[in-house]
Each structure stands twice: as C-alpha cells, then as structure tokens.
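hi!! sorry for the late reply, been swamped w classes. u asked for the two structures so here they r. pasted raw, havent cleaned anything up. first the sequence of the first protein and right below it the tokens
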Amino acid sequence: MLSLNERIDRKLKIREATLVDLDSIISIDTQGSGIAKPEYWQETFDIYGGLKENRFFLVAESDDQIAGFILGEIRAWEFGSAPCGWVFAIGVNQDARFHGAGTKMLDAISEHFRKAGITKIRTMVARQNHEVHSFFRSQGMMAGPYQQLEKDLL
C-alpha cells in the first residue's frame, strides 16, 4: 500500500470542502494549533462552505483522504485597499507536508481570485510561526503596505 505522501504526489486534487470533510479539517488544524476547535470550524463552514460568492473553502484530497485545506475570500476597501484575495487559513496534514499540497491549494484559490478579476492576494501570519511564514515567502509573498497594530483591552 502506498503511503499518504506517495498518494499525494500521484493523485492530489483540489476541490470545494464539504461537510463530510469537517472532521479531517479539524484534525489537521489541531495538529498545527494544538487546540481542537470543532465549534469554530462548524461556524466557519456554515459561512464559507459550499459555493458562496467571493468565499472559497477548498481541500486537497488524495484517495479519499484529506491532505489539507485552505480558506479565503475576496474583500474590498478595508483601509482604502482595492479589492484583493485574502487567505485566512491553510493547513496540511503533517504526514503530507513537503509534497506540494500547500502550493497546489494556494494556486487553486489564487485561480478563483483571478477569475473574479483580483490581482493581489494577502494573508497574515504570526511572527513566531516560521513554518507558515516560510511557506508563504516561498510562494512569492512578501511584506505588503499595511502593518497590523493591536492593543490589549483590559
């Protein structure tokens, strides 16, 4: 039997996420974050799942196993910014990393953005998350014109 990595290399396809994929998405997210958030992912699927205009929830699948997920939408005019594609979340099963799943998912969501007339894609990454930061940098993403600011509300 082929390993998950070998199956990913051979048969990876990107498709819209379905409700049946939710347990796998939760598992992959838990691997990355260390926190199981089933309610969050159910709410997220309710908002982004299915064919919704300008919202995209995709999975990478190989031999009926979910290798990863990506979530994004087209947003417009925050802070004077022209419409652009935003990637809110990406996750790849630990056993499937370094086999192109992340790249293929980012390419697929980028194509959805392009078809909608979007020419720029953005995301936010925690500074300490070197793995995800390195992934996005390897895909040609770099610092943009905006800087996040925050304040604790006590």
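now the second protein. again sequence first, tokens right under
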Amino acid sequence: MKSALAVHRDLKSALQQQARRTGEQSATVRGSDWRLATVAAVGTGTVVADGLTVRCMESYLQPAVGDVIVVDQNSAGNLITRGRLATGSDPIGATRSAPRTTDLSRNNTITPTADPQMTLPVTANGRYTLDAYIKYSGVNDVLIGWAFPVGTLGEWQGLGNGIVATSATAGGGTQQDTISTWGYNVRTESTDIVNTRTYGGVTTTAFGIQIRGTVRVGSTGGNFAVAWAQGGSAATATFVYTDSWLRLHRGA
C-alpha cells in the first residue's frame, strides 16, 4: 500500500495536470492568443478547424478544406481568422502586374513571341481574371496573342483598331462628310485564349489596346505572358511601348 505521503503527492500531481489541461482549453484562463489550425469544413462565413467553429474575416477569400489558417482568440473566447497562410507567391485573391519598363521593337517577324517583361507565373488549376494595356505603333500593325502552360483555356477581348485602320482625318465639304470619315475601325470580337488578333497601325501614330479576359490554367503551371509580333513581316519595326502592362487576379 502507498503511504499517505505518496497518495498526497500523486493527488497533487493529478490536480496540477488537470488544472493545466483546463487552462489550455479555457479562454478565461488563457486570455487572448492565436494558434495555427487546419480547416476541416467550410460554412457560411465560418470554418471548422481543429474542432472549433471560427468566424472568417472578409479578407479570407474562398476558404477551402485543408487550408492552414491563423485563429485569433480573445479573452471572451471569440474566434476569428483573417485567412490562410501563404503557400507561395500566387495566393488566391492576389493581384499581380507586370509592366513594360522600356520600349521594345520587333521586325521581320509574324510569329508572336512572349514579351520578356509582361510575363507572370501562374499556378496549376488556378483561375484568373486577365486585363492588360498595350501601347504600340507600326505601319505593319501588331499581332497580339498569349504564351501559357499546356492545357490552359480561356477567352479574351481586346478593344483596339481594326486591321484596316482609317486615319482620323476629317472629310471635306459637308458636316455629314466629316462625321462619316472621322475615327477608327474598332475590333470587339471575343477570342479563344489560343488564338491571336491583329490590330491596325497608321504610320508612327501610337495606339492603345484595352484587354480583358479569363484564364483557366490546367494541371500544369508555368508562365503566362503577352505574346506579340508584327501584323505583317517587314523591315520597318513595330513597337510596344513603356507603360504597357499585364495584370492577373487569381480568383481560385
């Protein structure tokens, strides 16, 4: 049989362990703190992580099972999470841009090639909103397309000059003549991401193309880039200018 001293020692140890366990779980004892947790289920404005129901801040976009999150707890036991921990340089909800910082010219080519500055990495199975602004000039027009990982799908639309760009010069004579000959033809087609479009040039006049679209990356990640060339191969160069840019917003 244990001695009375041994019994008291065991009882003291048991009470200390129970108090520690209670303190670890009780917000009134622990006070405010934070922990890492893994999402097991997603609700409406909440997630369940490590058996706890946690309210999501608006910054936590599209929570998913398996996300590792930071859970904040106040002294009253309320739990919130601001979002998942970053798993790389391309998190869901992030917007990234790639500007052209110098003028670039190409001649004697109608094969679109990835622009070395207007290039961004994309993640396998990611979905992106695409927009871009291309400032260009060239009497031989400009051919716009995209370079991307195999398996990428999507659609894009570029608002810019039609292939035959009529110079914006007023006509003669009557007001009606002036109205009918003023302005440029405009392209408005929606285009599969695998296809290109040619936009017209007039001598050395600089024009802009406004681009919007959707990019759905397949099972292989890599780089997504503006790819461009001349609309017609010639020794006289086509230019894409400084302050053109590519931008991607990851939605999923």
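hope this helps!! also noticed smth abt the second:
Residues 30-85 form a domain with the OB fold (Dihydrolipoamide Acetyltransferase, E2P) fold (CATH 2.40.50).
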